[in-house]
Amino acid sequence: MDGHELRLVVNYLAPAMLARLLLPSLKNAPDARVINIGSVGQSAVDIDDIEFRRDYNGAEAYFRSKFALAAFTLNGAEDFQKDNVLINCVHPATFMDTRMVREIGTRPWVSVRAGVRPVLRRATDRRLAGVTGKLFNGMHESRANSMIYDPQFRL
């Protein structure tokens, strides 16, 4: 409706905007954290076609939006840390039983409940105080698509 590709809006623009809008309220709050729900499925965003107007593919749009969210997490870490807010990105679980997974014709591997523990750990575990700008695959630290570490692709 606003002229943006839906997956980009839901998976990147909305969480990034919400995090930025909440930052003043989170600023200097004890143990404030932003947890982005990411994915290990990532593809570099085409900067010249960020809205994916050429050769659209729904799965690829999803991968690009999750790439953008991971890049936002890495970029935002320094800014957010200035305000004592941690920001991390978590891929909760692979092929959870969601509508999206069923729509692509993939049989779910795990329940949505399987993705709860990794997200809650990042949000509440006091031993993770100070951990920011990181990407996690489930319970373990991970790396994003290698292009995210290229400053050209930072969003």
Describe this structure in words.
- The protein is α/β, with parallel strands linked by helices and 155 residues long.
- The chain has 4 helices and 4 strands.
- It has a 4-stranded mixed beta sheet, sandwiched between helices.
- A hairpin with a 2-residue loop joins strand 3 and strand 4.
- The chain is globular.
Q: What would you say about this model in short?
A:
The chain has 155 residues and is α/β, with parallel strands linked by helices. It contains four helices and four strands, in the order αβαβααββ.
Keywords:
single chain, alpha/beta, 4-stranded mixed beta sheet, 4 strands, 155 residues
Helix proportion range: 25-40%
The class by helix and strand makeup works out as alpha/beta
List the secondary-structure elements in sequence, H or E. Answer: HEHEHHEE
The coarse silhouette is globular
Q: How many strands?
A: 4
Q: Give a quick account of the main beta sheet: strands, pairing sense, barrel closure.
A: 4 strands, mixed
Rg estimate, integer Å: 15 Å
What is the number of helices? 4
Q: Ranges with pLDDT <50 over ≥5 residues?
A: none
The oligomeric state of the chains shown is single chain
Span between termini: 22 Å
Mean pLDDT across the residues is 87
Q: What's the arrangement of strands in the largest beta sheet?
A: 1-2-3-4
Q: What is the strand content?
A: 5-15%
